[in-house]
Amino acid sequence: MTATHAISFTINGQPHEAAVEPRLLLVDYLRQHMDLTGTHVGCEHGVCGACTILMDGKPVRSCIMLAVQADGHELTTVEGLAEGPDNMHPLQEAFWEAHGLQCGFCTPGFLMTLKPYLEEHPDANEDDIRHAISGNLCRCTGYQHIVDAALLGAKKMHAK
Amino acid sequence: MKPAPFEYHAPLSLEEALALKREHGDDGKPLAGGQSLIPAMNFRVAQPSILIDLNKLEELRGIRKKNGALHIGAMTLQSSTEHSDLVAQHAPLLHETIPNIAHPQIRNRGTIGGSLAHADPAAELPVVALALGARFRAQNADAERWLEVGDFFSGLFSVALEPDEILVEIAFPEMPANTGWAFMEIARRSGDYAMAGVAALLTLNDEKIEAAKLVYLNVGDGPVEAMQAQQRLQGATADAAAFAEAAQLAAHEDIDPYGNVHASPEYQRHLVSVLTQRALTKALERASN
Questions:
Q1: Do B246 and B276 touch, CB atoms closer than 8 A?
Q2: Closest C-alpha among A43, A45, A107, A44 to residue A79
Q3: A–B CB contacts, 8 A cutoff, strictly below
Q4: Tens place of pLDDT per residue across chain A (160 aa)
C-alpha cells in the first residue's frame, strides 16, 4: 500500500474531495467509491470507449487515467446528463426513441462521446457521426440505430 | 487489469520535475498523456516504481512559430495540435496526420512529446518527425540540449534521452518551397494501429523532383526511411512511372517488415507499394499548386 494523495475535483457540478491511492484508476474510483456506476468498465485499455466521461468538457477514457489525475478538473459522467429521471437530456431521449441501444452496456460511452461532438457539430451527417463514434464499440446494434439516434439527437439538442 | 503499486509525484514546475528525474533516474517514469503507459500498466507489462506526472506543467504546453520552425511543447495535447491554425498553416503534414492517431478521446489526453518519447514503431508522430527533420529539446536539472531526429530515435521503443532528462519541446521545420506532402495509412478499423503507413514529401523544381522523403510506420523497429526509393526519385521527372519504381524499391529493398497478427510481411510490402504511389501522387498534386 502506497501513500494516499489528497485531490479535489468537480463531479457533475458538485465539488468533491478525496484521498486516493495513486494506482486507483479513475473509472474504479467513480464506480466503487462514488457509486457512479453509469460509467462502465469494458476493455480497461482504452479501446472500447465504454468508460468515456467528460473532463473539462472533453471526452476522455476514464480507464486509462488515474483517479489522482482528476485533481483540479471538472468531470461529467452519464449521471450528469439528465436533470432527472423524468427530464432526460435530448440526446438520451433520441437514443430512447430511435432504439439506439440494445443491452445498453456501451451506451454511456456513446452518450458522453456524442454530447460534446453534437454540441459543436449541429449539422453533422451520417459519415461525420460514424467517424465521431469510431472510438466506441457496440456489440449489439450494428451501429445503425445509434447513428439514427445521434442524427435525431442533434436535431433535438439544437431545437431547444 | 489494475496497475501495480507505485509512488506518484505531480510536480508543479519543470524545475521540480527535473529535480525528481535527477533523483530517481530511470526508476522515475515520466507520465505524459498516459494513453500508452497506463494501458501497459493495467496489463502490468509496465510496472514503473515511480511516476512523475507532467500534466500540471502548463509551461510544457503551447505552439509557437520561431525561426522557420513550429515549436511544440512536449505536453501539448494531440487534440490541440490537431485544431491549431498555426499547425495547419506551417506544418500541414502534421495537421493531416494527427486525425489518424487513435480516436478523439485518446487525442484529448495524448501528447505530442509523449508519443514521440514512447517511440512505438506503429505510431504516426515519429514518422512525421523523421520526414520533416524535427529537432528535440531535452533538459536535465542543469542544462538543455537539442537532438536531431536521426539521433533521437534509437530503436524499438527507445530514444536517446538520458536517465535524468525530460523531453520538453519539439521543433518541426517548415517545408521548403514547392513541396507537397501526404500522410496515409491503412488499418483494419479506423483508429487501430495501422498495418502500414507513409509520410511523403516531394519538392519540385519545374517538372523534376529536387528532393523526396518517404518514411514508413510499423514496418521496422521505428520510423523507416526508404533511402533507395528516395534516391530513385531525386532528379527524376515526377510521373507515375517514377512513382511506381520508387514504390517497388521501397516495398522490396528499403523495408524488412516483421508482419503481425493483422498483416503478413508480404501484405505489408503490398501496402507499402500501394501507399507510396498514392502518397506521392497526392504530394505531387499539392506541390504543383
A1: yes
A2: A107
A3: 91
A4: 578 999 999 999 999 999 999 999 999 999 999 999 999 999 999 999 999 999 999 999 999 999 999 999 999 999 999 998 899 999 999 999 999 999 999 999 999 999 999 999 999 999 999 999 999 999 999 999 999 999 999 999 999 6
Nearest to B54 by CA among B134, B168, B224: B168
- Assigned C-alpha cell, B199: 509520410
User: Shortest Cα distance from A91 to chain B (angstroms)?
Assistant: 19
The strand ranges marked E within B140-267 are: 144-148, 153-155, 158-159, 166-173, 179-186, 196-205, 208-217, 224-225
User: What cell does B252 get?
Assistant: 522490396
C-alpha cell at B182: 501526404
Predicted interface score ipTM higher than 0.85? yes
Pick the CATH number of A90-159 from 1.10.357.20, 3.20.20.80, 1.10.150.120, 3.40.50.720: 1.10.150.120
Question: Contact B38/A55, CB-based, under 8 Å?
Answer: no
